[in-house]
Amino acid sequence: MEAIRSFQKVLDDPVKYIETLSARKKIIGYCCSYTPEEMIHAAGLHPFRLFGLSPDTSAADRHLQAYCCSLVRGVLTDVLTGRLDSLSGAVFPHTCDTIQRLSDIWRLNTGFPFFADVVLPVKLNSQSAREYFEAVLRKFRADLEAGFDITITDEALAVSIKLYNIIRSYLRKIWEIHAARPWLISGSDLNRVAMASMILERETAAAMLADLADGLGRLQAQEGKPRRRVMLVGSLCCQPDIYSILERSGADVVWDDLCTGSRYFEGLVAEGGDPVAAIAERYYSRVICPAKHSSVTARAENIVSAVREHRIDGVIFLMLKFCDPHAFDYPDIKGFLDAQGIPSMLLEIEGGLPPEGALTTRFETFIEML
Predict the structure, then answer these.
(1) What dihedral do alpha carbons 88, 93, 97, 100 form, nearest 10°?
(2) In 84-201, where does DSSP find H-type helix?
(3) Between 20 and 30 A from 177 (CA), which of 120, 217, 231, 366?
């Protein structure tokens, strides 16, 4: 589809895209889906998701311990080697200890005019956490205003909230079309759409997503061959090939629990009323990742709910090597899935994927078991 090629074009060279865009807008980097993008957008800035795709991370290795994940190594390499010189700053929510250390190293080794730590609460199960969450976002709003000598009005926040609600709604629609008829759009294309939507100028992303959703809705393709339906669970997936290899092995990724997937578009911000309180409520109430806690079984229950809703045959845990939050989370969730009779497998990756032959063998074995 032509619409997919437009998303792919952005992913072919995201640095070039933001370099061009930086002539019109200041660019703010971020690497966590808990970043309050609506506020950055309302400030007239462009939020740009940092994926850390550099294959050679030697520039970052002298700053990091050997047990830091490939995402952090890639992001730090990108900034140290000058690939991100078009940024005007970065935002670091406290996702994990490694990201928190990346924040310090970034601040000490770069000269960008703006830098912000957004230390959101970890336990999201009390009224005091709600109030603290909102207070942190109000401080971030003030930091943006002071850093760029601007005023972020409630009216501008309302416009940004509406735009992000449109983006999230179209992403969910596209995901649901794929879940119902996975042969209409491949999982790898779905992954590209999500990643590109975090790079594109958001008004452009909304228009492109609308075109894609409408085009998919009009397709009258023949019924696809029944295949096993699997779900990816993890932090993020920057490897579209993993979907293709699974498809060639006899399964479709019809849903996920990734921050480059459903966790990014889960939940809308209430429109009307106090915009900061509304943004805080959405981020407080959305489906959590291991960086946050709402109950002992919340993550497992969310995954099981998605399995039931989307008729999933098996779950694949996609784990970045040295990702402590997901590594700590995995045993309990696997035990919960086992108790529910839901098959699962663990795939640990670092940087690139394992050799395709070995990966195909593992996937085929798992799918055969299903």
Answers:
(1) 30
(2) 97-109, 127-148, 154-180, 187-197
(3) 366
Distance of CA 272 to the CA centre of its chain: 26
Phi, psi (degrees; rounded to nearest 5) at 364: -60, -40
Mean pLDDT of the 236-254 span:
94
Cα 94 to Cα 140: distance, rounded to the nearest angstrom: 13
Residue where the block lists tokens 């998919």: 216
Task: Return d(Cα 251, Cα 227) in angstroms, integer.
Answer: 5
Write the pLDDT tens digit of every residue in 55-105: 788 899 999 988 899 899 999 999 999 999 999 999 999 888 899 889 999
Among 189, 340, 315, which Cα is nearest to 255's?
315
Each residue of 246-271: pLDDT tens digit? Answer: 999 999 999 999 999 999 999 999 99
Buried b (16+ CB within 10 A) or exposed e, 327-354: eebbeebbebbeeeebbbbebbbebeee
* C-alpha pair distances (Å), 12 with each of 16, 17, 149, 245: 9, 9, 34, 20
Give residue for tokens 């995402």: 71
CA dist list (Å): 34 to 13, 86, 288? 25, 23, 10
pTM, 2 dp: 0.95
Interior angle at CA 289, CA 7 and CA 33, nearest 5: 40
CA distances from 300 to 263, 286, 292 (A): 14, 14, 13
Predicted local confidence at residue 353, as pLDDT:
82
Contacts of residue 142, Cβ cutoff 8 Å, sequence gap at least 6: none
